[in-house]
Specification:
Largest sheet: 11 strands, mixed
CATH superfamily: Thaumatin
Number of helices: 1
Signal peptide: 1-20
Helix content: under 10%
Keywords: Signal
Shape: globular
Radius of gyration: 15 Å
Length: 163
């Protein structure tokens, strides 16, 4: 069992036992793609961003994995989206957002519907250093998990140039 799955299972057990503290956090999501993009929490609510739009997303522990896709993209929302990028985020009660990014089941990245990839930025809660992680066809590190403050996710356009 992966460390992430074990942590999620432990968190779920604490919630069921009524022992978990209710924690929330936020992350900023910016859409630099040239199309409307949706962040889908499986069959739950969708967050849709127009080209150039940024929005603060509240995380509460019930919405910890978002699939990033072109608005209107159809897939079986009861399953993982294998043709999509994802943002997997949990919230620490310290205010940190513990987040990782990837593609499908951590498969090689394919540019999909005008979305080149994701860029994750944030200040590491422990080291206080700025960290940047990308998931694009040239580089994707789904094992790089950031316990971050001031977390920002940028959805990159297929023709975008990374900073």
């Amino acid at each position: 069992m992966s460390a992430r799955r074990l942590a999620n299972l432990c968190s779920l057990m604490l919630v069921v036992d009524g022992l978990a503290e209710s924690c929330t956090g936020t992350m900023l999501v910016e859409n630099k793609a040239e199309l409307r993009v949706s962040l889908r929490n499986y069959c739950g609510d969708a967050i849709t961003l127009a080209p150039g739009e940024s929005r603060s997303v509240t995380l509460d522990g019930t919405n910890n994995k978002h699939w990033v896709m072109k608005e209107g993209f159809e897939w079986d929302c009861n399953l993982d989206c294998l043709d999509c990028f994802y943002v997997a985020a949990n919230v620490a009660c310290s205010g940190a957002v513990v987040v990782g990014i990837g593609y499908g089941h951590n498969d090689p990245v394919v540019v999909h519907d005008g979305i080149l990839g994701l860029l994750l930025e944030g200040k590491n809660e422990v080291s206080k250093e700025l960290e940047t992680v990308e998931c694009t066809p040239s580089s994707c590190s789904p094992q790089h998990i950031l316990p971050g403050l001031d977390v920002k996710i940028t959805i990159l356009a297929a023709m975008a140039v990374l900073p």
